Amino acid sequence: MTVRVDLPAGGGVWADLVGQEHTVQTLARAAAAAAARLTGEPGEGMTHAWLLTGPPGSGRSIAARAFAAALQCPQLGCGHCRVCHHVLGGTSADVELVRTEAVTFPIKDVRRLVGRAAMHPVGGRWQIIVVEDADRLQERTGNVLLKSIEEPTPHTVWLLCAPAVDDVLPTIRSRCRHISLRTPSSTAVADVLVRRDGVDPAMAAFAARAAQGHIGRAKRLATDEQARLRRHEVMRLPQSLDNLSAALQGAADLVQAATEEAIETEGSRAVIETDELRRALGVGPGSRQPAGAAGQLKELESDQKRRATRGKRDGIDRALVDLAGFYRDVLVVQTGAGVELVNEEMRETVTSVARSSSSETTVRRIMAVLHAREAIEVNVAPLLAVEAMTVALRAG
Ligand SMILES: [Zn+2]
After folding, report:
1. What single DSSP character describes residue 242?
2. Distance (Å) from CA 6 to ligand 1 centroid
3. Residue 294 · residue 354 · CB < 8 Å
4. d(CA 160, CA 66)
5. 210-256, pLDDT tens digit by residue?
6. Residue 9 C-alpha to ligand 1 middle, in angstroms?
7. In angstroms, what is the span from residue 84 Cα to ligand 1's centroid?
8. DSSP state, 131?
9. How far is the CA of 173 from the centre of ligand 1 (A)?
10. Ligand 1 geometric centre to CA of 82 (Å)
11. Is 127:157 a contact under the CB 8 Å cutoff?
């Protein structure tokens, strides 16, 4: 039997991990063990390489950051000291948060990380590298990491995050301690929206259900009317299937809405970044551009383009998850499963689609949506994939 660890008052750095009590206990215990080790005690339960997996939105990168903060904070993750703030805010000198906008990790980035991991921590505790998308490490780049993960310096901690264990190279995952996060229940997500973000309980309940366990998405739906309107547009697609031109228009609208959302979120960030880089490089009106500045600005620009493409794809993927949720509801009604509908507020539409089709048709439709997600994942042009899906949905 394992002893429960007392968490800092108010949950500390763990407060935002919704519905993940088991994970929190394991990581909090490891942080306590790590602190013991710093004082020369054996500190059992601490490992130098961790793999955190969980479906999108379950909070795996939140968990990684919280764990990093708990390792660095003298009070094991109090959540309010300077150390905690720096780690959670991504400005700690001893915690590097890495995420690639590219489909795979560039090898030069991984080499830099390995060098970084070997450095002595400024704060004297741990040198932590958080790789938020370890599923994007490929064989060649992964091999560069292996040795550092296998024989880390005594101060190094690797925290790798990925959607599922199978997404990570076997050579890497076999060297990590694995922690798996669950999809939180909609009640747990709604609770955090009310408690942390001050969202009205009815709105929180709707957003939590609609987001299907994705906390970030739930917050966005609860607090951003544009996001709600876009979702509403997407959910009209199943009702416009009778008419081919309306259905294809619906497909085009879906892709358009995801693009707009990506531009909205990425656009303002890109402007700030470019301004900051220009200032750092001393590029300004009337001043001569220093050598190398053009290259750096160009590199940033191509990073931003990649990120915008990824943002757009993520947005379309979310819309497709919403659609799959609709047909899942239709199936719930058709099979009389008696579980909560994701789209409770659309029960009438769900019921009418359920009456006018068979459960075999619904299963085929869900497959068509999943197929479109996979096609986009392997770089099929989004509009093409969504149009093909729409045609398949009509065929029933
Ligand atoms: Zn702290």
Report:
1. T
2. 15
3. no
4. 13
5. 998 888 889 999 999 988 998 988 898 998 888 889 899 989 988 98
6. 11
7. 4
8. E
9. 30
10. 7
11. yes
